[in-house]
Design brief:
about 800 residues, alpha+beta, Phenylalanyl-tRNA Synthetase, Chain B, domain 1, OB fold (Dihydrolipoamide Acetyltransferase, E2P), Phenylalanyl-tRNA Synthetase, Chain B, domain 3, 6 domains, 7-stranded mixed sheet, 6-stranded antiparallel sheet, about 30% strand
């Protein structure tokens, strides 16, 4: 909101500069983002009267204007079409510098010397009109600097950022109340007197409000015999400097009062209202309405409309209708000053995608007790600017006056919140300066009973009044002190070091870290659920949007969304990972369980298009793969790098049955038989559902089980000095038996002489029964302190074979 400092001083006397007031308001919670000096540099520009106009001897389009400056005359060349004898204009003499930087000099204009020029509003930076010279109001003193003749020309404009809860500050009067309270100065409202005619308004207009729940109060006044025309210069300047476009004297009067006291008004052409009736009720189903901007709008249900006897004439609290606007021929004006229910106005404005100066204020709450004063003020200004007669009396429909409830405020509670030691009288004084009614009772020495003023909708709780005390008392006056606490050792440092290690290991594997939102849609909250870790979704009480209504139970949805967004911009080769928390509701607990997880996704080419990869890679069967797409082993390799870096190699990969993973190209990860995550390729159906055309590889694991079990220190093991013996083992097992299971079983039975176990052959097909597979392992036997004998190796090897047959139902192949 733009606030004129000169206008502000009409409401409150304060001996501070504009910048000091800006600092005062900012420290009081009303942020002033900028202070702009306007009208500066016009000290040498003078007021003058046009005493004569003569034709220019060398041009038909130009003329010579004789200007009277009081004690002297000058003749200047002018080409403006609106000049006339007797006008008071603005004259820029030689040596004057205009706001644009143009310096005036005496110059020859088609054979005639012109000592300066007559200026337009645009040239003086006092408006947008550049079509003619600026004409001042009759009675303006002549021959003196413009800044003396019109003191409001030079001003400071304060750009205030008003928070949504402070709708009372969306006016000059609202800001003045704040300045007065913070500086402990009195404030005032403009004084005016109404001169009414004999005809009562009740004989010509009727007001009906059947939907009073959406319109608690509706006030109307009428002015007859008005003459529509432009407003005086000072009115137009005030409006333009506060961001409003001057339109006509009647409309400008309503906008001036909106800026002055924050009450939106609307002026109807009375002759266009059928039977002089105003009916405030909800819209009809499917109704359309043409607003002042000429757009026909489909009204949402429960839109509050202003109607006459037969049709809608205004969209209540938002915009008037084209069928009742003020026209140049308007003679009688009906003034609307109403208090509309703020949530209804916001709902309608959002549904229509409209935001006007009126709706902006109604949505934040206006003063219902100020509606009548604003109607009186509007009638006074319209008569002053447009002439006419104010009809006697007014119409005021206010069936249920709004009463602000009393709020008990404990002095010790407020002092405890603020860290102050204020007495009850000091708090009462602070609150009273804000217009808050304060009652004290002798029997309750430690409390106050407060009634918020009618313009403060945001004061409802005890803590709200505590904030007001702090603002008026001054945040800078509250003593700074350190809270008392017990210092304990930081046990999270080791945890942070492990997290940093995981980040480094993933970066070394070629993955880039991203951070995604913790909020997801309901579908995303459950679509990657494993059934072992999640027990349901966690909804938000006040979600930002429907797509961000639940806390995530997996990191995969965020990674998938990032991949889709990148692929839309033709970035198709991606390796991304995220390290963050997921949230799982726990039955009987108020708070969810937070699990630290690592998840990654890979799509596209394994390697970039560099010179040594342009011919593709050769797979074990001799086939050239020109595309070199990522596959299961890329994500498995990254996982193994993490496990090895954390000194935790004992993770078992077993075939996965998760529905969103590709069968045969995926695995579950087990630690001591406990499920900690999964890895693999998304199933083709899931990939199609996500509208991704490439192969998608993912993994997600819990990190806490790894951090708990990882070895604290790395132990150096020297290179073995003694030779090793290798034995091959070929066996048939069921197809659901993984190589990792067999490797872990063999290693467990080999005690300390099995150095490694590797799978080097896997076969399913002819000569192998259905449901079975042939697997061949190479076992390396080696001791660190002696040379093994064949008998020692054979004993352990036999024990391994017996265990495989007994525990897995394997059969040996020759």
């Amino acid at each position: 909101m733009l606030v004129s400092f000169g206008w502000l001083k009409e409401f409150v006397e304060i001996g501070l500069s504009a910048h000091d007031v800006a600092d005062l308001l900012t420290m009081g919670g009303i942020e002033i983002e900028a202070v702009t000096h306007v009208g500066k540099g016009l000290e040498k520009v003078l007021t003058a009267r046009i005493e004569d106009i003569a034709p220019h001897p060398g041009s038909e389009k130009l003329h010579l204007a004789v200007l009277g400056l009081g004690d002297r005359r000058v003749t200047v060349v002018c080409g403006a079409p609106n000049t006339a004898v007797g006008q008071i204009v603005v004259y820029a003499p030689p040596a004057a510098v205009l706001p644009s930087g143009l310096e005036m000099t005496e110059r020859d204009v088609k054979g005639v010397l012109s000592p300066g020029m007559i200026c337009s509003e645009k040239e003086l930076d006092l408006g947008e009109d550049a079509s003619g010279v600026m004409v001042l109001d009759e009675g303006t003193a002549i021959g003196i600097p413009l800044t003396r003749a019109l003191p409001f020309v030079e001003d400071y404009i304060l750009e205030a950022s008003i928070t949504p809860n402070r709708g009372d500050c969306l006016s000059i009067l609202g800001i003045a109340r704040e300045v007065a309270a913070l500086a402990d100065r009195p404030w005032r409202v403009p004084l005016f007197g109404l001169v009414e005619g004999r005809d009562p308004i009740g004989d010509k207009a009727k007001i009906e409000v059947p939907d009073a729940d959406l319109c608690p109060r509706y006030v109307a006044r009428m002015v007859e015999g008005v003459t529509i025309g432009p407003s005086p210069f000072d009115i137009r300047l005030r409006l333009s400097r506060c961001g409003f476009r001057p339109i006509s004297n009647v409309v400008d009067a309503t906008n001036l009062i909106l800026l002055e006291c924050g009450q939106p008004l609307h002026a109807f052409d009375y002759s266009l209202l059928e039977n002089g009736r105003i009916v405030v009720r909800r819209s009809d189903p499917g109704e359309t309405f043409v607003t002042l901007d000429g757009i026909e709008r489909q009204l949402p249900p429960d839109s509050l409309m202003i109607r006459d006897a037969g049709r809608s004439v205004a969209l209540a609290g938002i915009m008037g209708g084209l069928n009742s606007e003020i026209l140049p021929t308007t003679k009688t004006v009906l003034i609307e000053s109403a208090c509309f229910e703020r949530f209804g106005i916001r709902k309608t404005a959002k549904a229509l995608g409209m935001s006007t100066e009126a709706s902006f204020r109604f949505e934040r709450g206006i003063d219902p007790e100020g509606s009548l004063w604003a109607a009186h003020r509007a009638a006074y200004l319209i008569r002053k600017l447009a002439g006419g007669t104010i009809l006697k009396g007014y119409l005021d429909v206010y069936p249920n006056p709004i009463e602000r409830r009393l709020v008990p405020v404990r002095v010790d509670r407020i002092n405890g919140l603020l860290g102050t030691a204020l007495s009850r009288e000091e708090m009462s004084s602070c609150l009273g300066r804000l217009g808050i009614g304060v009652e004290t009772q002798e029997q309750a020495q430690g409390s106050l009973t407060c009634r918020p003023p009618s313009w403060r909708w945001d004061l409802e709780r005890e803590v709200d009044f505590g904030e007001e005390v702090a603002r008026v008392y001054g945040f800078q006056n509250i003593p700074v002190s350190m809270p008392s606490y017990r210092s304990e050792a930081d046990h999270t440092r080791d945890h942070h070091a492990r997290v940093r290690m995981v980040n480094s290991l993933m970066n070394l594997s070629g993955f880039n870290e991203i951070i995604t939102m913790s909020f997801v849609s309901k579908q995303a909250a459950v679509e990657f659920a494993t059934g072992s870790l999640e027990s349901g979704e966690l909804g938000l009480l006040n979600p930002l949007t429907e797509d961000l209504a639940f806390m995530r139970t997996s990191l995969i949805p965020g990674l998938v969304a990032a991949v889709k967004r990148n692929m839309n911009f033709r970035c198709e080769n991606l390796k991304l990972y995220e390290l963050g928390k997921t949230f799982t509701p726990v039955a009987g607990d108020e708070l969810p369980r937070e699990d630290l997880r690592l998840a990654a996704i890979a799509v596209g080419r394994r390697s970039p298009d560099t010179w040594h990869f342009h011919r593709g890679e050769i797979d074990p069967l001799g086939k050239v793969d020109a595309l070199c797409q990522v596959d299961f082993y890329d994500v498995k390799g990254a996982l193994e790098t993490v496990f090895e870096g954390l000194s935790f190699p004992d993770v078992c990969f077993v075939p996965s049955r998760l529905p969103f993973l590709h069968p045969g190209k995926s695995a579950d990860l087990l630690v001591d038989g406990e499920f900690i995550g999964f890895a693999g390729e998304l199933s083709p159906r899931k990939t199609r559902d996500l509208a991704i055309s490439a192969r998608v590889l993912i993994f997600e694991i819990l990190l806490e089980p790894l951090f708990i079990r990882m070895r604290k220190e790395r132990v150096f093991r020297p290179i073995p000095r003694y030779p090793y013996i290798e034995r091959d083992l070929s066996l048939m097992v069921e197809t659901n038996c993984s190589g990792d299971q067999i490797k872990h079983l063999i290693s467990r039975l080999g005690h300390d002489i099995i150095a490694s176990v590797s799978l080097f052959d896997l076969y399913r097909g002819e000569s192998i029964p259905e449901g079975r597979q042939s697997m061949a392992f190479r076992i390396r036997y080696q001791s660190e302190d002696r040379t093994l004998t064949d008998d020692e190796v054979q004993e352990v090897h036999s024990r391994v074979v017996d265990a495989l047959v007994t525990e897995l139902g394997a059969s040996m192949r020759e």
